[in-house]
Amino acid sequence: MSSITCGFIGLGLIGGSIARALKKFDDKITIVAYDTSREALALAVKEQIVDIAASAVDQSFSKCDYIFLCAPVQKNDENLAAVGSVMKPDALLTDVGSVKTAIHEAVHAAGLDRRFIGGHPMAGSERTGFANSRASLLENAYYILTPAPGVPEEKTAAYRSLVAGMGAIPLILDYRKHDYVVAAISHLPHVIAASLVNLVRDSDDEDGLMKMVAAGGFKDITRIASSSAVMWQQICLTNTANLSSLLEDYISALTGFKQRLDSRDRDALFREFEDARSYRDSFINASSGPIKRSFRINVEIADRTGALAHIATLLADRGLSIKNIGISHNRESQDGVLSLEFYSEDALNQAMEILKQEGYDAIFKP
Fold first, then answer.
1. What is the mean pLDDT of residues 243-271?
2. What is the bridge-based pairing of β-strands 116-121 and 92-95?
3. Which of 12, 37, 133, 163 is 20 to 30 Å from 298 by CA-CA measure?
4. What angle, rounded to 10 degrees, do the helices at 229-238 and 188-203 form?
């Protein structure tokens, strides 16, 4: 492919990860970047991710084929005005925000509809900033594209190809549909997690007993409550209508559950949990989707020195690579203390067989 130039306004975790993925995809790509953090820019140049460090949104971006808006959403109006005055006529503008309606409206007001495709890489990390960015963050992650009206089909196809080249999975949606979908599967769960954590905090006694024993399942389902308060405040204020509508539906569902609970309706309570279990399991077992299930097992290990090292060495000696590893010191709702994730189903099956031959209790955890 012919070499292209990509510009980044903002070079944090997502912007940095996209820039790294582009360089990995094609090291001939030229990257221009501006960030308010001089340290982030300097590090990006040092690591040979950024070729041109701009001091502002200026003529440095005039040769860019793609320009990524990766700064906080509050800066979008200001950055749109700046970039609109310097970008070349055939350049494509995109963003990385998790809410699309506001940016599409701003783009329309700026007269840039034919040049804009909204982007939402559905990947992230608890860590922030360019220093924590990595090309692998985008691998096998859905990357939603929301073309504005009037964008030529060949532009959409070219951008889709670029996203796929980064290792992500492009999915084209109308921006209004996107905002409703993410309100349900991302934004509402964060509201629920935050509310649940606050409920436990307010219900706890003066000795903090609930906090002390809040581990295992409770920590798992409320992990996302540890996300940035500023970011989620902004998401709530930009996807308000969708989130409010779904929250109303959820409150109605909880009210119905309470009625079934108060009436001790055994059959209805069973159906509630069984239907949820069945539908949730279908996420994991669906083979038609491009993102495959995780290959993870839990293993009971003794609490003694060298136990973890023994398992890691045992699997390494058989040529098995561990993708991820974790330890839980709480047995609530768990079948084992050691969690091992592998890259394939074949590796998982081999690991289970090896561990069972060595006397370990290894259980598949979808």
1. 97
2. parallel
3. 133
4. 130
